[in-house]
Design goal:
Chain A is α/β, with parallel strands linked by helices. Chain A contains six helices and seven strands. In chain B, helix 5 links the parallel strand 4 and strand 5. In chain B, helix 2 runs antiparallel to helix 6. The chains are: A alpha/beta, B alpha/beta. At the A-B interface, helix 5 and helix 6 of A face helix 4 and helix 8 of B.
Chain lengths: ~170, ~190
């Protein structure tokens, strides 16, 4: 894994690569470098995109996108170092203008993950073929997974406003 | 057949028939459905009580709401409930349909199920044991005997209020009203 760290650091500039614990490699990268790093890692055999996730750092006014990659097991081979490793690629985008390029050209299975992030965090992925609603039925002014979405106020405004049917019958 | 119930059978045969042939819709919402497979299979064997799961709501008369109800699921619940033939009974299973339970503050889980469809009984707990379903079923028998399991009648009588609540949550509904709504402007 140290070898992979060295190749990454030599191939790309301004990356922060660290190994926080065994079998885990964390990369901090600028937003523009994500696509090239992902395709580089894919060519190295890390062909499985396990997850695209997001963290809302509201005090720093940034979203952190997280891509988790791992390698498939090879047939008739020993369980190698590569197959144990999880690679975590992190990048920051601004909170005011949450836009990022889609990674669908490299990993096709990123489509539902990016749709989910678009729905729950309001991040727009350029080049995504269909950013339509995925889970939610209602429309939200602020996407519900952002830190400044006040769930208590929302629940009071929406669900508690609906009257009990028994009360309605009592009124008439 | 229990000989003590012979008088009841002669007096109200239809009621007794409803009591002992509860066909439950096999509809899963949330986590409570994990309790239903052991209930209907060999371990607890709900058929002792006449409870059998059926494939479609058109053949069912008992609706178990097992677990939290998200906004999207509620739409399916309303449509399923409206398809069931009368008489039909609804039982809320677990804390979440009663008042939201641990989803009290959730942005996408409705808090009180009985605002949208009528409910005949509740099983409290998170999760209730499978035995609780049988307690609920035997209690439902008592309610049917006394004529108190009248959720479907309440739905028909107060349909405009239920429909108004459903429309308040969703804006517009894609299906027409089940019953005619009179003096809606009142």
């Amino acid at each position: 894994m140290n070898k992979l760290k060295e190749t990454l650091e030599s191939a790309f500039s301004d990356l922060q690569v660290s190994i926080p614990e065994d079998d885990r490699l964390t990369i901090f990268a600028p937003k523009d470098a994500v696509l090239s790093i992902l395709s580089f890692l894919k060519s190295k055999g890390y062909e499985h995109l396990a997850l695209v996730s997001c963290v809302d750092w509201i005090e720093e006014e940034e979203f952190e996108l997280i891509y988790i990659l791992s390698a498939y097991m090879q047939k008739d081979d020993e369980y190698t170092d590569k197959e144990k490793t999880n690679i975590i690629l992190k990048t920051r985008i601004s909170r005011e203008k949450p836009e990022c390029t889609t990674v669908i050209p490299i990993f096709k299975n990123a489509e539902p993950y990016e749709r989910e992030l678009h729905e729950l965090f309001g991040i727009r992925f350029e080049g995504h073929p269909r950013l339509t609603p995925l889970f939610l039925e209602r429309e939200y002014k602020i996407p519900p997974f952002r830190k400044d979405f006040d769930t208590r106020e929302y629940v009071k405004k929406v669900f508690d406003e609906i009257p009990f049917v028994e009360d309605k019958i009592g009124q008439t | 057949m229990d000989r003590n119930q012979l008088a009841k059978w002669l007096k109200a045969p239809a009621k007794m028939g409803h009591k002992y042939s509860l066909h439950v819709v096999y509809f899963c919402t949330g986590c409570g459905i994990i309790e239903v497979p052991p209930v209907i299979t060999a371990r607890w064997d709900a058929e002792r009580f006449g409870v059998i799961p059926v494939a479609t709501p058109r053949q069912a008369n008992l609706f178990l709401i097992t677990g939290y109800v998200s906004v999207k699921t509620l739409k399916a619940i309303i449509r399923t409930y409206e398809q069931m033939p009368e008489p039909k009974f609804t039982v809320g299973f677990g804390s979440c349909p009663i008042n939201g339970g641990m989803y009290w503050d959730s942005y996408n889980t409705i808090k009180h199920l009985d605002k949208y469809i009528p409910v005949d009984g509740w099983i409290a707990g998170c999760m209730p044991r499978p035995e609780a379903i049988f307690v609920a079923v035997t209690h439902l028998w008592t309610l049917i005997d006394k004529g108190m399991a009248d959720g479907y009648k309440r739905y028909r009588e107060n349909y405009k209020y239920y429909r108004a609540n459903q429309e308040q949550l969703y804006g517009t509904l894609e299906w027409p009203p089940l019953f005619p709504i009179e003096d809606k402007n009142e």
